[in-house]
Amino acid sequence: MSDLRKQLATIHARSTNELDVKAQKAAYAQSILFERNVASTQSLDVLYQICFEGFQELCALDSRFLRFEKSIFSLQSKSEDRLLMNKKENKELDAVLERFLGLVGARLQLKPALKAVEWLIRRFR
User: Fold this and answer.
1) Which of 14, 57, 112, 124 has its CA 20 to 30 A from that of 50?
2) pLDDT at position 30, please?
């Protein structure tokens, strides 16, 4: 089987789950800030705004967070889907997420840090 055929088969298998609205809402509702019933009703735009504000507050506390503004906290990150990324892209994303989590770990008692981590949980699973 060619690589393209394998990728298409993977996308097809996953897209079946994505069409199941209940399953999609359940996956999207995993939250550290909100109750499940609230999290499942939030739009991606509302979620991004809340989480990006937390990220900006983190950047004000420590400029080392600024390096993540053009990747995992960019507007483009709203349209990225791990399920559609290839292995290399997922591995690169994992590396960025690990660097961010390593930096934010000492600040998890702060509300801005929790807001930023919420984005990672809900957007990148």
Assistant:
1) 14
2) 86
